[in-house]
Amino acid sequence: MEKKNFRIKDIAHASGVSVGTVDRVLHNRGKVSAVALKKVMEVLSKNEYKPNLIARLLGSNRSYRIAILLPDPDQDPYWGIARLGMFQAENEWQHYNIKLVTFPFEMLHKHSFEKAAAKVLESRPDGVLIAPIFYHETLPFFEACHQKKIPFVLFNTNIKESKALCFIGQDLYQSGRVAAELICMGQSLPAKFGVLHVDEDLEDSVHFLEKEKGFKEYINETFESKADVVSLNRTSSSDFSFKKKLANLVSDPHLKGVFVSSSHGTTTAATLLKNHRKNNVRLVGYDLLKENTEYMKDGIIDFLIHQKPQQQAFLGISCLANYLVFKKEAVHMNLFPLEIVTRQNLDSYVKLSEQKENGQNVTYKPVII
Amino acid sequence: MEKKNFRIKDIAHASGVSVGTVDRVLHNRGKVSAVALKKVMEVLSKNEYKPNLIARLLGSNRSYRIAILLPDPDQDPYWGIARLGMFQAENEWQHYNIKLVTFPFEMLHKHSFEKAAAKVLESRPDGVLIAPIFYHETLPFFEACHQKKIPFVLFNTNIKESKALCFIGQDLYQSGRVAAELICMGQSLPAKFGVLHVDEDLEDSVHFLEKEKGFKEYINETFESKADVVSLNRTSSSDFSFKKKLANLVSDPHLKGVFVSSSHGTTTAATLLKNHRKNNVRLVGYDLLKENTEYMKDGIIDFLIHQKPQQQAFLGISCLANYLVFKKEAVHMNLFPLEIVTRQNLDSYVKLSEQKENGQNVTYKPVII
DNA sequence: AATAAAAATGTGTGCGCACACAATATTATT
DNA sequence: AATAATATTGTGTGCGCACACATTTTTATT
Question: What is residue B94's DSSP assignment?
Fold first, then answer.
């Protein structure tokens, strides 16, 4: 009735050897005679042995340090939310002795990144969670990690040749296509659309250009290249050339929609459009920042694509922790769905995150995304 | 540096008593002198003690049976997917000795439900996951559970007065509003919309009427009650009256969209609309059943609201397991976000579920939803 | 004051596994 | 054949907690 688990002890008993020998066979450490090996293997082939992870864990009482190499959350709320997810994960994994150490760097300065990366290596962590937003500067870091056998998880930006433990993020090209789909829905020619990049280092981070590519391609497919797509790039908050171009774009009577490529940029764009009193222009942006949800309720923002930074970060830490604690390999590509938020389903998202903030639903066991 | 966890042993040492006494204080069992109590409490107030759940678990080696009281998955793929999520959860929790026992009942027969419910009680489970689709028939079952102190989790349909451990589902009214929002987007008067209920027991399950209510209210708000909304209800696959009404509806040139209230109904409706060669009518339905995703790629279905049955079921089991194993109270209301699936983000959802099916990403630790 | 009863406290064991180390069996060397 | 060297196998311990049980201290009773 109550089928007890098949333990090492049972294997030993069944094959007429000691638990020590079974242990050696299971982990192939130490020497085992051919005879003993055969006996044990026979028993193993007849009974499924699932090691009791709880017990295994109790014995080895080591702790793990995970280094967090992400942009400074004070400079961009997106990263602030991500950080939240990490600390939630840390809390979940507390019994497994997972500690996080953060190494923030400045989003627009490669130098700052390089310094932080050096510090990470110096700290000799057991694992790293990294947002490799600067391609060239990150490669040597990966090299060093491989040499030191430090597993790392990529976050947000994928670098395929990095041989990371896994990548966690979204399909950026497809993300642009979703944005375009939403912006095109029910629209007709003549039409003009804007793509806005706000304070991004487009030179070095391909991230945003991928989104733009998907966006443009979908629009060209839909309107057979007859729609006009203009891409604007603000370099700083005092970028005059941008302001001029934007005013120009906004004054165009055929302007049907604007797509912003980042979460904080969405807030900026919403403010600008509101000031221009253009609320017949459809605005598509990213993430449920507080400001964005308010602009959505206001009717300024029409669609938000939810990147789920919090959940992504949580999963990132979980992947590393699983690997370190349970030696469990992660799925190499962990693409989050491109979730569409509108005025009508916004609350169902916001309320959810409020529940989580209360920390009540923190479980000791995993949930699929 | 390596701050070790503060254990019972440490408390005992710090307060100059034995671990036995500390144990008695912590669990207030047995007698403890006022002096000893005070000493221990003092130490406890100065140091945070977090019991090591791993160790606690290892000792007590009991197992738990969770009864699953859901509609027969063979009759509706929705429940099949839900079942999948449960078994995934069972797998995740295997080391904690959580066993599932299923008690399927027929969706349209109260009697079948009552019989299954009786069997559940007879089996004396440690917890129950239940879809209370028949309101009146479920109440006595809840009563019995309370008497026998069996915790239960509600699934899909909420019955507030049941005092369940928690409810897992979606806001159905709002779900209807989301459907309406999607169906209205870019549409103009004159307009007619259809609501389809396929093979549902509308008398007894309020479930679907809630969705209809939200749908209608949003449309009336948007078109100032000038749009026509027709509700059709198929009672069986050979319902002639329905066929006639549907033909009538579909032939209306002002028909702009159709909303179907269930996942399998969405497939049915898509087939019917395809046969009527009406693919200029916007179709909004539920869930990523294989047929539905194919109809979406075909261009027949325009939007799917993802109810995430698999994830809901997974969470349901997890809530019960957490409660049983760790004595952890669940969030009482667990509303899933109303996720919108379109042609452009469909793949990001489907690929994800494929990843999960491979079972690779099964973690030992939880992820927020 | 001696003993019994009750109260309070301390000790020991097992949960399943990993790993160190002790013990035994086998083979090599002189 | 005796000893050393090596190969193989078995035993013991700790991880942190819960719980059973043994021991000691205090209080009640005669």
Answer: G
C-alpha–C-alpha distance, residues B48 and B66, integer Å: 34
**Distance between the alpha carbon (CA) of A49 and the C1' atom of D8, Å:** 24
Q: List, for residues A322-346, the tens digit of each pLDDT value.
A: 888 877 777 788 889 999 999 999 9
Within 8 A by CB and 6+ apart from B269, the residues are B196, B198, B258, B260, B283, B285
Compute mean pLDDT per 10 residues along chain B, 369 residues long, and list them. 73 91 89 89 89 82 88 89 89 82 89 93 93 89 92 90 90 94 87 86 72 93 87 82 83 89 88 76 91 89 92 90 81 88 91 51 35
Which of A315, A321, A367 has its CB closest to that of B314?
Answer: A367
The C1' atom of C12 and the CA atom of B18 lie apart, in whole Å, by 13
A64-170+309-336 — its CATH code? 3.40.50.2300
C1' of nucleotide C26: residue with nearest CA: A33
Complete DSSP assignment for B244-276: HHHHHHHH-TTEEEEEESSHHHHHHHHHHHHHT
Angle at B344 between CA B342 and CA B350, to 5 degrees: 80
> Residue A47: CA atoms inside 13 Å, Cβ hemisphere, count?
19
CA distance B4 to B367: 26
Measure the CA angle with vertex A148, ends A146 and A149; round to 5°: 60
Grouping H, G, I as helix, E, B as strand and the rest as coil, residue A230 is strand
Q: How far apart are CA B25 and CA A262, in angstroms?
A: 53
Q: Which of residues 142-181 of A touch B (CB under 8 A)?
A: 170-171, 174, 177-178, 180-181
Domain ranges for chain A, please list them. Answer: 8-51, 64-170+309-336, 172-306
Does the nearest atom of strand C lie within 7 Å of A7's Cβ? yes
Cα A269 from chain centroid (whole Å)? 24
The distance of Cα A7 from the centroid of its chain, to the nearest Å, equals 38
CATH of A172-306, one of 3.90.1720.10, 3.65.10.10, 3.40.50.2300, 3.20.20.70: 3.40.50.2300
